[in-house]
Amino acid sequence: MKPKQKDPVPATKDAKAPATGAKGWLGYRPEIKVLDCTIRDGGLMNDHRFTDEFVRAVYEADVAAGVDYMEMGYKASKKIFRREEHGTWKFSDEADIRRIIGDKKRTGTKISVMADAERTDYHEDILPKKESVLDMIRVATYIHQIPAAIDMIKDAHDKGYETTVNLMAVTAVPDSELGGALETLVNSEASTLYVVDSFGNMYSEQIRALVKKFQHYAKPAGKQLGIHTHNNMQLGFANTIEAIVLGANYVDASICGLGRGAGNCPMELILSFLHNPKFKLRPILHCIQHTVEPLREKVRWGFAIPYMLTGCLNRHPKTAMDFMEGDDYENIVRFYDDVIADQ
Amino acid sequence: MKPKQKDPVPATKDAKAPATGAKGWLGYRPEIKVLDCTIRDGGLMNDHRFTDEFVRAVYEADVAAGVDYMEMGYKASKKIFRREEHGTWKFSDEADIRRIIGDKKRTGTKISVMADAERTDYHEDILPKKESVLDMIRVATYIHQIPAAIDMIKDAHDKGYETTVNLMAVTAVPDSELGGALETLVNSEASTLYVVDSFGNMYSEQIRALVKKFQHYAKPAGKQLGIHTHNNMQLGFANTIEAIVLGANYVDASICGLGRGAGNCPMELILSFLHNPKFKLRPILHCIQHTVEPLREKVRWGFAIPYMLTGCLNRHPKTAMDFMEGDDYENIVRFYDDVIADQ
Q1: Is residue A85 pLDDT above 60, yes or no?
Q2: Could you say which of A93, A168, B154, B228 is the most buried, measured as most Cβ atoms within 10 Å of its Cβ?
Q3: Element spanning A28, H or E
Q4: Do A20 and A245 meet the contact criterion of CB atoms below 8 Å apart?
């Protein structure tokens, strides 16, 4: 859909034009890039076991919808993880990606993978760009892994890729350490720094404060900001908007919000929000109807009370994920009692 | 839950203390009142046909959770609507309410009903307060019904009730008319003016602008502001927070978000957000598990693509509600095509 272009702010005179475009709601910010992380983040719910048909449907939807990047999966180390014990998209081998996307030259959608610091054999598994269909390597790092991440970013950059760095679980990083971390990261080759609310813990005021803090380091260094949210408190979309308004230009979203636990910012919402006419909603809706929604028979993602509780407590969602996978997943009072006892 | 009290804003120094309490996140604003509209707004999904057991479970949960008000339903005119053709809570007769709440004197939860302008026989059906268990009458009005609403507010006020006025579908009100409407409403006896996003159409910037505009009239008149949101774009909770931060002290929420179409701001999220220790989450979770979630077998509420589409287009959700009630409700591409053709 292109929603009917609405007035800057209906029914008020004193509203400032929003920062999403030079012309308020009637314009758009062409620099904003949308990245589809459906397969990558969603893979955390099914050990990366998607059928080719599923991955291809998501890719075709992204191409038709004008989505800027599609992330295929992880580049996990085969020394640490046995290839035969996990799904294809934990490793995202070149041949597997090529089988899905065919001759991608015809499309405007770039391809990315995520490489976890300390869990990727990047020297071997990330090919020189001219031998690969990949366009971008996104390096995910916890704060204590930053030196490893810096080396990975340099390796990917030198091989010819666009690079980003995604500082995970930022709500668990002490303030005294974050400044130093950001200073280090803006001196890397990564062109974009992502604010990542891994635990779905942030309210809008916190998102705004954090984006401003990131911007304080990123802007003078000529780096872009990105935003990756989780929906534990039904704030995935709302927090993504807040980051965009404050200048984040790289936006992660997934179809139906498919992603770990409560999932991510839904693609269908963010495309409805952005006014760039290059984005088309209908192909995403088609993919929801025929591909992603039917997956709910097997995989239980999206907002649920256990994810809300870990989000409020700023905890990794793994206890909630285990609970949601069990037969007793409707017994939310029991989960609550366990969480409280565990504090 | 009382979520672990977190730092004002994690990992940043430059964050201002949020406006939710004098002491930032470690405090709370005792003036904030939470109103449970589960039965009233949810009744729009099942023609107000809840069992006594269901309504009593919601009431008991609210009492145990420390919720300030519970709204039982509407006070619809029996001249316009035939009593036997609709559920109990379209009319909310005194005897029906008393059957549910018994001796409410023991509780801190007040009882409200909603009275629609031009559809309520208020002279007869709203008893003098001393003959009723009701505490508050909320008058709902579209802009063109304001004169009727003013008369209803006066009637209820003179009978001894707290009164609020809920200006519905405010996103469809032209700016040129809103100022006059607010000026009229603040001169009524209503103690609280509600910002009502009936169509689930507002982004946070629009909520902020509108709340400021309402505040401009309400504050000098000594009136409180309220907020009532819908979740068409997964912004029901986010927009409620924004309104609270800007000073709204009356907050509508419903258990599991049960309400018309995409539903309302979920009670479980707003209680987790507010830090007033009088609020308890566990009774609400118990009610979700044993009472409200099981209703999904019969009633289809909550975020869904058709509601998203009417929300984006600033339309009443009725076409989406009809679609969601039909057998073809998963065919979201068809709904999208119909909506586009209909523009």
Answers
A1: yes
A2: B228
A3: none
A4: yes
- Distance (Å, whole) CA B210 – CA A14: 9
Residue range A29-297, CATH number: 3.20.20.70
CB-CB neighbours of B102 under 10 Å: 12
Q: Contact B282/A333, CB-based, under 8 Å?
A: yes
- The one-letter amino acid code at A228 reads H
Distant-in-sequence, close-in-space partners of B250: CB < 8 Å, separation ≥ 6: B32, B33, B35, B164, B192, B194, B224, B225, B226, B227
Residues 162-221, chain A: which have Cβ within 8 Å of B? 170-171, 173-175, 178, 203-206, 208-210, 212-213
The answer to whether A255 and A292 are in contact (CB under 8 A) is yes
Q: Please state, in angstroms and rounded to a whole number, the distance separating the CA atoms of residues B251 and B225.
A: 9
Q: Can you point out the beta strands (E) in chain A?
A: 33-36, 69-74, 110-116, 136-141, 162-167, 192-196, 224-228, 250-253
- CB distance from A328 to chain B under 8 Å? no
Q: Please indicate whether, in this complex, the C-beta atoms of B4 and A210 are within 8 angstroms of each other.
A: no
Average pLDDT over residues B16-20: 42
ipTM here: 0.91
Q: Does A331 touch chain B (CB under 8 A)?
A: yes
DSSP category for residue B106: G
Tokens of B93: 């007769």
H or E stretch including A38? Answer: helix A38-42
Q: A261-273: per-residue pLDDT in tens?
A: 999 999 999 999 9
Q: Residues A273-301: pLDDT tens digits?
A: 998 999 999 999 999 999 999 999 999 99
Question: What's the pTM value of the predicted model, to 2 decimals?
Answer: 0.92
CB B71 within 8 A of CB B42: no
Second-level CATH architecture of B24-297:
Alpha-Beta Barrel (3.20)
In 3-state terms, what secondary structure has residue A316? coil
Q: Where are the domains of chain A?
A: 29-297, 305-341
> Closest Cα partner for A72 from A46, A102, A48, A104?
A48
Question: 3-state DSSP call for residue A118?
Answer: coil
* Residue A227: per-residue pLDDT: 98
Over the stretch A141-166, which tens digit does the pLDDT of each residue have?
999 999 999 999 999 999 999 999 99
CA-based nearest distance A27→chain B, Å: 15
